Amino acid sequence: MASRSSCPRMLELGPRWMMCVLVLCLCLCLPRESSARRAPKIPRCPATCSCTKDSAFCVDTKAIPKSFPPGIISLTMVNAAFTTIPEGAFSHLQLLQFLFIENNDIQALSKYTFRGLKSLTHLSLSNNNLQQLPRDLFKHLDILTDLDLRGNSFRCDCKIKWLVDWMEKTNTSVPTIYCASPFEFQGRRIHDLAPRDFNCISADFAVYETFPFHSVSVESYVFNGDQFVAFAQPDSGFCTLYVWDHVEMVFRRFHNITSRSAVYCKPVVINNTLYMVVAQLFGGSHIYKWEEDPQRFVKIQDIDTTRVRKPNFVETFQLDGEWYFVVADSSKAGSTSIYRWNSNGFYSHQSLHPWHRDTHVEFLDVVGKPHLILSSASQPPVVYQWNRSQKQFTFYSQITELADVQMVKHFWVRKVLYLCLTRFIGDSKILRWEGQRFVEIQTLPSRGSMAVYPFTVGLRQYLILGSDFSFSRVYLWDDLTQRFQPFQELNMRAPRAFSLVSVDNKDILLAASFKGNTLAYQHLVVDLSAK
């Protein structure tokens, strides 16, 4: 260090010298770097594993170690203390070629457990507790040559269908494995199964659209290439028409027919002309004709109020090339009446039994003979048969002794005719035509039911029973037992009618609700093997 006496001399050397001294002091104060950077720390073999140059053998491991020495191409794990393996669990071992996860209690794998293992050629999951494997678990293991799945309790249901399909197509060698359950497949070799052995296509009815009004009837029809539905709304005083919007994929309001007490709006297209039969509780019932210019419905006819006093339902049908409609009358003084089309209007054709308070009419053909089935609040349902020589329906038979049948609907399964009788107080019945008569084959609980509707979607035969007191129930026909099985419950308030519309690859079930919003349900097909 310079003494005080040397300071004047240093000052005499000038500012350049002082700058050099300052730089030197700063350099001495800064920390020195080592002449060579430290070498990175090499990961050690995990405490529960034994490692060689290129392999690791792990026992009683609580979790898959996060690091291994470099160059590991083979990993074995036994007696592991975990039961699930998460996504990307081995992604840090990209050089891995052999992976043996054996003799553990592994119960579940992530779909992406083996993500990143592009070099893997051998994989063993033997002697674990796996009952199923995630779909496409081995999808990205492009060079996998050997896969061992033995010693697991596989449940051979829809969730393993993908594995059956994969084993049929892969070149990977897979030793024989067996089904542990369910009972029908127990002990069978999975290699011997085929994708067609699994019935994995299910369905679901989900709310698709909500209409903010009450309604008591719904009818669908096609006119001029467009799909329409008509709702009777006695509360709001309209017969409302909606048209399907192919762009927005919803029904949108199209037109209203003013009707202060409409209980049924029945469309019928005759010679490319649209007519609407509007049945009303008060003020008489009427027939309207659609005009294009301007677009409107024009009333063309009144229905005789001395015959039809309290209409409840309207059915249309064709006989011998002629159009008819029949109105079920539910009053004590009225009569269920048939009207026939005659070039420019419908004219009274026949009155069926009076005084019976009919609630519904069903037209059907039995062995080439047209019939009408009348449901009534005061007597069991009766059948009328068409007499071609007289061009009249004549009384044929009584179906059953059951009273309180609100509605009778028919359906066909494998060319066999069935009826469903729905009741408000008692149970509903399924009857089968046995050549000379209908025979009861099934009872369905249906307390509070006013409406029943059989319908098909693809190859599936459904039946929906509405209820005023609980959930409405959808049933699915079982070909094995030839009975309906419970399928789904739908929450709707006091349904009065249903209609199925198939448009733009959608199957939509419309439900007219007397006490709540009118609803549209979409039939969704669900592949259980894809989950």
From TrEMBL:
GO biological process, one term: regulation of exocytosis
GO cellular component: extracellular region; synaptic vesicle
InterPro entries: Cys-rich_flank_reg_C, EAR, EPTP, Leu-rich_rpt, Leu-rich_rpt_typical-subtyp, LGI_related, LRR_dom_sf
Pfam families noted in UniProt: EPTP, LRR_8
Family matches, as SMART domains: LRR_TYP (SM00369), LRRCT (SM00082)
Residue intervals of the LRRCT domain: 152-201
Transmembrane domains' residue ranges: none
Protein name as annotated: LRRCT domain-containing protein
Record gene name: LGI3
